[in-house]
Amino acid sequence: MRLYQAVVIIGFVALLEVLCLAGVIDKVTMPAPHIILRDFVLMIAHGRYFSDIGVTMANVLIAFAAAFIVGVLTGTILHGYRTARDVLDPLFATYYAIPVFAFYPLFIVIFGLGDGPQLLIGFLLGVVAVIVTILNGLDRVPNVLKKTARINRLTALQTAMQVTLPFCAPYLLTAAKLALAYAFIGVIGSEFILARSGMGYEIGFAYTNFDNATMYPLILLILLMSIFANGLLSRWEKLLLARRGQH
Amino acid sequence: MSSAHVTLRGVTKVFPASGGASGVHALGPIDLDIRKGEFFAVVGPSGCGKSTLLELIAGLTTPSEGDVEFEGRKIADIPDGVGVVFQEDASFSWLNVRDNIEFSLRGKDLPAEEKARRVEAAIVMMGLTDFARTYPAQLSGGMRQRVCIARTLVMEPRLILLDEPFGALDQQTRLLMGDEILKLWRATGATVFLITHALDEAAMLADRIGVMSARPGRLIDVVETNWPRDRDSRIVERDNFGLLTSRLWKSLREESMKTMGRTMGGA
Question: Are B58 and A151 inside 8 Å of each other by CB?
Answer without folding.
Answer: yes
